[in-house]
Every structure is written in C-alpha cells, then in structure tokens.
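Problem: given the chain below (469 residues), write out its structure.
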Amino acid sequence: MPTEEKSQADQLRESLFRRQKHACEAVSAEEIAQADEFCEGYKSFLNLCKTERECASWFIARAEAIGFVPHEEGKIYAPGSKIYVNNRGKAAIFAVLGKQSLERGLRLSAAHIDSPRLDLKPNPLYEDKNLALSKTHYYGGVKKYQWAAIPLALHGVVCKKDGTTVRVSIGEAPGEPRFCVTDLLPHLGKEQADRKLSEGVKGEELNIVVGSRPLMLDGKAEGFKLHIMKILNDTYGITEEDLISAELEAVPAFEACDIGLDRGLIGAYGHDDRVCAYPCMEAIFQCDAPEHTSVVVLADKEEIGSCGNTGLEANFLLDFISELSLTQGVNPRKVLRASKCLSADVNAGFDPTWSGVLDPLNAGYIGQGVVLTKYTGARGKSGCNDASAEYLAWLRRVLDDAKVLWQAGELGKVDEGGGGTVAADLARLGFDVVDLGVPILSMHAPFELAAKTDIAMLFWACAAFFEGE
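Solution.
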C-alpha cells in the first residue's frame, strides 16, 4: 500500500510547531530504566535527609569520599581540583576547577535544601489536661491544616552552654515513637468547619503531642512535662533551658515511595527543593576536568526569603567566588558577568483536579521533562529575575544537544498568585540565570509527588550544563 504523503500544512506544522512529548515517547526504554535506577538513590537520600543540616552533612560526606577537600583561602588550585565550603553546617558550596580561566566565567547550579516544616518554639514544652505538648512555629509557606493528624518525626540539634552539640532524630527508625498534631473530630467541628480553609487549623493550634503519662515517683504522679524532660535528660543530657539554643524541626515521618501501579512517580516529603539539589550534586560528582569551573551551591532559608547568613541573600557565595578569582588574578566582577547559572528549583506541575489556576499553554506537565521558567514573581512579575532571551537561547541549545527533555512553564495564571526563587538573588550578583527544575504535584504539602523521568532529566541537564563549552 503506498505511503500517504504529508500535506503541505502538515509539513509546515512539523517544521514550525513545537510538539511536547512525554518521556516515554521521547526516550528509549533503556533510558527510562536508567531514570528509575537513578531515583532509587534519590529515595534513599530523602529518607536519610529531612533537614538542611542533614542534607549538608550527607553531601559533604559523599563529596569527601570522592576526593573533595575543604577550600583553603589563598591557595591556587589546578584544573580538576575538587573543593567545598561548609557554611555553618546548613549550607555548602562544591566546586570542580575548570581548564579555562575564571575570566571566561563559571557554571553555577543553585538549589536549596530547606523545606516547609514545623519548628519548635524556644520555650516549647507544656502540659495540659493529661497531655504533654510542644508549641511550634510553622516554617515556610504551608497549608496549616495539612500538618494535623499525620505522623511526625523530630530532627535537629541542641547546643549546650558548654559548647557541646547534641544531635536529635526521633521517629524515623523502626520501633521509635512518633509525634502528632491533633485535629478536631467532625462531630464537634461545626465552628471549625465554618472557618476559612486557611484558618481550618491556626498557627497556634499546631501543638504537637509529645507525651501522655505522668512521671511516677513514690507512687505519686509528678507531672507530664516533667516526665518528658526527664526522658530528654536521660537520653541527651539536656535541660529545659537548653531548648532555647536548639533547632528542632518536626517533619513528616513518611518514607519516600513509588506512587501509581506503573511506579512512575515518587511520593515524599521535601521534594521542594531536594529533588533539584540531589541531581545537581550527582552531576558535579561526575565532573573531572570541565572546561569551565563548575559550582553547586546548596542554600538554606529559601522558603522564608533566603535570609540569614546561610541564605543566598548573604555573601558566602560571593566571598567564595571572589577568593577563587583573586588567586587567578581575575576581577571577581568580571567573573560574575561572564558566568552562567541555573536556579535549580521546582515548578507547579499541571494538576487536572486543580487546573483552574494554571495556564495550560504555559504550565509544566508531569513526565514531560524539566521546566524552564523564564520568570517567577507574582502579579506583574514582581520580585522575579526574568531571564534574558539570549541566555534562554543558549540554554535551549545545550539541552537539545544533550537530548534532555524540557518544557517551558510559569507558576500559575497571571493573577492567581506566584512565588520566588534564589534566581533574583543570583541575578543581583551579575549572573545570567534562569530557573530550571522539576514539576511537582502538591507542592509544599507534607507529601509531594514528582516523576522519576523528570528527576533524571534534571541530572542529565546539569551534567550537560557543567560539561558544555
């Protein structure tokens, strides 16, 4: 039977239109299998690293195992040298020195390793009506009602006056106790049901149950709070005053798992933004002697505005680049202007259940690769970076040459809301920067969804970004 020739219109459509494919159409079965295997390591990482401190520590240990060493100020490094900076245990920089002078610029990928959570207040413990409870202050943009009636684990550090630090992790290992914010039964919830959804559970109602038995001494009940403090003192050697100088975070006690009968998605806490941090780091770990110096910065505090000395509003990244530049006799400002950067952060995946807030022509779709986000911001691009057309064209070429599946998207319809990333902080330094990341369902919820192929595509994208001319 003769092959039917394409019409002129079909030929024009093929040459002029962009057809976005699903990964299962666009790549081989072997590459799908590679993506699945890559994500097994990612799931293990998520289960071990639920706070910014745990992430920084885990990546530094991995880096040291393959030859990264702490950066020494003033030292001249040869191409291929692998160095890192540990910023207070909550942020870090990793670099592989390139063959080209820094005058030609560097390649930077920036992700954040903090995620929405419940932080314990400085004076958290109290007792009331046969329960010991802990007060919290939510961290980042959360729907507060999502944090009630789910199992929670407690992670963090307690720093004592004598200078010692106690690390805490309760609720992850089999057999360990967990914690919970209670919710109101529907039979008595008429007043609660009449509240606005955003106030279904209020901030001051996010109180965690930490105990329910009083301390018994000589047959007498001596208090619920006292019982909890005695357990903490027996286990960690801390007193109530030590909790003032503590960073204790309540996070979901869920393990990362496959979602769907086809196992195409990963459900987990903390995809935002560890789903970008992990591929970026895996990409730099495979760098040996790139043309351009390749750098990954893992930042803290992005979820609350990149503030503090471990967020990217601070100067620790600028200081590192300046020190490295001066050892090569190059003006740091010239390095920044010649450099290219990926702000590796997630975007909202198109959710057919909640499609009304998304522009279907400009949304990221699950399974269709990484999302290239020219601008974020809110209502009139307020507070965004808005990457240049020239830089987007360059990055398109890099991604296409590496056969990385990508799509263009933005964070919802124009007047629906919006958000920001570290891209604006990096643009202020002079970088050419654009957001590139993984589309997420249920973003900022205690349990988020991401596609395995999208996660692997970001790894391949970062590898191509570091290795390119």
